[in-house]
Write a structure and sequence with these properties.
This protein is of the alpha/beta class. It is built from 23 helices and 20 strands.
Length: 598
């Protein structure tokens, strides 16, 4: 016999269910757990004890129990012994099979004590025979096996199955529901689903959010986002149907959960492969960043984003936060390079009243404001060594003291940092702490410059122009020459410069709806005019007058170097100057040109 459990249930748990429990213990295998309970428990009837002793069964030590005492117990079979118990029997955890034995209460009705005693004896005889048949004729095994088979079917389904009654008490929780939510069955059975699931599983679609319950007449389906036990997020399609008893009264709900998280990520790749949140880019370098952000969704490890100014490092940080388990918490940015050291310390860690001149009140710092959320430290390479020491302590221990304060503050903050400087070089030079670098750079992300992902320029340009059109209610568009100008320019200021150039062009164009190259800022239009179009030999035709030495500028040199793959001799031919002229120009502008070309 497989391990199983049985509950006998009647109104008071005073005689019928107590006698049934006693007889069942006689006939059941040792591995079967047997109990009895009442809807409104009383005390064990003395004549029940007396009668059972005549059958050789001692129930004198039995105590009348309430069904509520078994609220989280997972029974395989429940047998009700009266109509009241049958009608009022709650849906128990595990959704056990319920069988009804309609037995008269021997304690009710008139008559002498001997007549009542005889009714107890007759009732005990009937219950004994029923219990004998239950275990010796195979009924109990069949009922339990049927319950096990049903459980196996539910656990084999690709959907998670959850059931709860009208009081939101969970009675059914399948294996897939465990996988999706992160909770195991023993943690949730018999408990209020709103107390178990963070922000409730159904979201704003919950029919029981205000304890009143407004069940739909038929099934309903909707998509929702659920925060699992470990803090990650699942995209779920949920279908809810009402459960009804034999009288067509609603007794609870059954919900199926389908995890669409992976599928939705696949849809992003096929339907919006060039966008991740507010990030736009189709270049393979951007696709790798998208993949890494998804991989980080279940983790709180520190991330450092490196890249030139204007490459969208803060937008990437926002995307990491939005994909993480902290996305419903705050995102707090701070620019470490925009504030002097004294002010920065107060900004990060706060201060107490009177800590310095002008500290008129206590003030929380960014770390404390970001508690349970994400703190974005931009331009972290600008921190002084003393500030680096203080930041390292917070990262190591999660504690700090406000400026002028003695009380230690403890915070739970995920740190994302960004820099346009080479921190490894700074570590080598001793201007950036090595231990802090490795604390910040657990996961490094490189934001590529715009000149290294030119196939993203049309995407970004059209997105920025669409925003301008929405804001101004105009209908600007790019001419073919304008778009070519944008694609061929080197963009030393990266995406930010591109956006500014487009805004500039829409203003300069005045009433013209089609943007032309001459509408762009001088450095963009001038670089395009200077480089012109490549000839048959790959050299550029120049707009300057014949015989006049072309004037070099950083943007034109960057573009030529990019087109030549860093070959300076070829770049010089494109620019129409000698190699010595180009070398002299690059030496004079060392630091402003792309490192790999210098």
């Amino acid at each position: 016999m497989i391990p199983a459990s049985l509950l006998f249930l009647c109104t008071q748990n005073s005689c019928r269910s107590q006698m049934a429990e006693g007889f069942a213990r006689q006939f059941a295998p040792a591995e079967v757990f047997i109990a009895s309970a009442g809807m409104e428990p009383s005390t064990v009837h003395p004549l029940a004890i007396e009668t059972m002793s005549q059958f050789g069964v001692d129930i004198s030590g039995h105590i009348s129990k309430s069904i509520r005492e078994f609220g989280s117990r997972n029974f395989d079979l429940i047998i009700t012994l009266c109509d009241n118990a049958r009608q009022k029997c709650p849906i128990m955890p595990g959704s056990p099979t319920v069988v009804h034995w309609n037995l008269e209460d021997p304690a009710t009705g008139g008559g002498s004590r001997e007549e009542i005693r005889e009714r107890f004896k007759q009732g005990a005889t009937v219950i004994r025979q029923l219990c004998y048949d239950l275990f010796n004729r195979g009924y109990f095994y069949s009922l339990v096996q049927n319950k096990k088979n049903t459980d196996n079917i539910l656990n084999a389904l690709p959907q998670g199955i959850i059931g709860h009654d009208l009081n939101r008490k969970i009675f059914l929780f399948s294996s897939e529901a465990e996988r999706i939510t992160g909770y195991v069955q023993n943690e949730v059975l018999g408990r209020d689903c709103h107390q178990i699931f963070d922000n409730n599983l159904c979201g704003e679609n919950c029919a029981f959010f205000d304890d009143k319950g407004r069940m739909p007449e038929t099934h309903c389906s909707y998509d929702t986002t659920y925060k699992t036990k470990n803090g990650s997020f699942k995209e779920i399609t949920m279908t809810v149907i009402p459960l009804r008893n034999e009288r067509q009264e609603t007794t609870g709900v059954l919900a199926s959960l389908v995890d669409r998280t992976v599928l939705k990520h696949s849809h992003r790749r096929t339907e919006e492969p060039f966008r991740f949140g507010d990030i736009i880019g189709q270049d393979h370098k951007m696709q790798l960043i998208y993949d890494l952000i998804e991989d980080l969704s279940d983790s709180d490890v520190p991330v450092i984003i490196s890249g030139e100014s204007g490459t969208g490092k803060e937008i990437i940080a926002h995307a990491i936060h939005a994909a993480s388990g902290r996305r419903d918490k705050v995102f707090v940015p701070v620019n470490c390079g925009a504030l002097p050291e004294g002010t920065l310390e107060s900004e990060l860690f706060g201060h107490v009243k009177g800590a310095f001149t002008g500290a008129m009140r206590d003030k929380k710092g960014r770390f404390e404001l970001a508690h349970t959320g994400t703190l974005f430290l931009d331009e972290v390479g600008e921190l002084t060594l003393p500030m680096q020491v203080k930041l390292l302590r917070v990262l190591q221990h999660g504690t700090f003291e406000p400026v002028g304060g003695e009380k230690t503050v403890t915070v739970d903050v995920r740190v994302i940092s960004a820099t346009n400087r080479n921190l490894k070089d700074m570590v080598a030079k001793g201007t950036f702490r090595e231990d802090l670098y490795y604390r910040l750079a657990v996961i490094p992300i490189d934001a590529p410059p715009l000149r290294h992902k030119k196939n993203d320029i049309p995407l970004l340009a059209n997105e920025f122009l669409a925003r301008v059109n929405r804001e101004t209610r105009r209908n600007f568009s790019f001419s073919a020459e304008a778009m070519k100008t944008l694609v061929e320019y080197a963009w030393p200021g990266n995406v930010r410069q591109l956006q500014n150039a487009i805004q500039y062009a829409t203003i300069k164009s005045r009433k013209e709806q089609v943007l032309l190259p001459n509408h762009f800022p001088h450095e963009v239009a001038n670089a395009a005019a200077q480089l012109g179009q490549p000839g048959a030999d790959g050299a550029f035709a120049h707009a300057s007058r014949p015989g006049r030495k072309p004037k070099l500028n950083a943007a034109a040199v960057e573009l030529a170097l990019a087109k030549s793959g860093g070959n300076k001799a070829k770049a010089a031919r494109m620019l129409g100057v000698g190699r010595a002229t180009l070398y002299n120009f690059m030496n004079e502008h060392n630091g402003t040109l792309e490192d790999s070309h210098v």
